[in-house]
Amino acid sequence: MTFRMLRLTPLACLGALTLLLAGCGKPPAPRFHLNMVSAINAKVDAPTQQQVANVLEALFGTPDQPLLPPEVPFKEALIARAAGPVASDIHGRKVGLFREHCVHCHGISGDGMGPTAAFLNPYPRDYRPGVFKFKSTEGTSDMPTDADLAKVLEEGIPGTSMPSFRMLAVEDRQALVEYVKYLSLRGQTERKIYAEQLITVNDKGQLETELTKDSLGEMYFEAAGMWQAAQAKVLKPASSPPADFLTNPEYVEKGHKLFFGAGDCKKCHGTTALGDGQVENYDFWTTEVNKALNDNKDSSKELALIQEYSLKPRHILPRNLRSGIYRGGRRPIDLYYRILAGISGSGMPGHANQLKTPEEQWAIIAYVLSLPYDAGGQLRFDQEQIAPSRETN
Are residues 246 and 369 in contact, defined by beta-carbon separation less than 8 angstroms? Predict the structure, then answer.
């Protein structure tokens, strides 16, 4: 088969361009899409999904015109600055901050499925369930504080594609923090509607709903209240560590014994702390995707939807503690939060019950912070760091 080059005269080119431009209208306004994985796991059918979408839009608006449900104490002015298309207001301040800085990874709905997401490892965070890894609050179900989210924006997350946004003005970062909370509140409300099955279809195919102003209010007020309560849930050490605890051999040795004993850290991080212990686990977000895939493996329609609205499942690998990279921060207090409270959504449990005394708690932190170094204080970067079982992931 041969191909011939098509030659167009200048007049033909002009005509083709005119036809092309005539078909180019204003693009449709962006819309939040539903959490289809959660909807499918809750066995919510298409008519019910549309009703949920209508309810959510009435409560939370659209990406261009966000709304807050009545009496939710979030900062509307900051949300408005972060929302909408990229532009400048009458004072010359940038608006549309989320779309400018965050959408390419986190997606217009905050689902972690922006255009670049599939190429990144780890995947960007999906804000909608209200589960955040790096925070200072006590329980895995507690929300992060505003300061926790601001710290991630300011410092980025080492070892991931999340960069520092320290170059943005403080007010811009505050607007992005408030917008992330808004996206999460919307997602939490959606999941509560599915979980409580307040919109259903009866045997005759008719929609039935128990959604009322009061029942909806309970849903979003509960989630909003958790955000408001976060500051009161901050984990506070019982005492400060000794000034020399990081270099004190007795603390490091005690931490070594706890790491392999009461802390049982080797189960996941491995006997060499290279992160090659338990490598077959999935995080919270991927577990939900796997459930949907397994439950609907015989339904081509549902499988297609799940694959469209989720990313390919990957195992979550325990941290290689000898690399010197700490995603939640490398300060001793950052490791205190990770070890005592755990890392929400990751499978990393809190160890407050195993490490009961301040001495034990600071000792294991001293040991973990010593792991990237040899006894002589030399970095181990010239030594093999990756365990064979991690090379294919």
Answer: yes
Sequence-distant (6+) residues with CB within 8 A of 145 are 135, 136, 137, 230, 231, 234
Distance CA 139, CA 234 (A): 9
Amino acid at position 302, single letter: E
Helix (H) or strand (E) holding 176: helix 170-196
95, 87 in Cβ contact below 8 A? yes
Distances (CA, A) of 337 to 130, 205, 233, 334, 340: 18, 50, 12, 5, 5
Going from the C-alpha of 207 to that of each of 55, 203, 204, 225, the distances in angstroms are 14, 10, 9, 30
Taken in order 20, 23, 26, 27, the sign of the CA dihedral is: negative
Q: Is 345 left (phi over 0), alpha (psi -120 to 50) or beta?
A: left
H-only helix segments in 210-281:
213-229, 249-260, 266-269
pLDDT band at residue 255 under the 50/70/90 scheme: very high
Strands (E), the chain: 87-88, 94-95, 199-201, 207-209
| pLDDT confidence band for 243 (50 / 70 / 90) | very high
pLDDT at site 1: 38
Nearest Cα to Cα of residue 53 among 98, 102, 109, 107:
109
Cis peptide bond prior to 242, omega within 30° of 0 = no
User: Closest by alpha carbon to 272, among 393, 392, 355, 386?
Assistant: 386
Q: Give pLDDT tens digits for 181-207.
A: 999 999 999 999 988 876 666 666 555
Mean pLDDT for 10-28 is 54
In degrees and rounded to multiples of 5, residue 343 shows phi and psi of -125, 110
As a whole number of Å, the CA-based R_g of the chain is 25
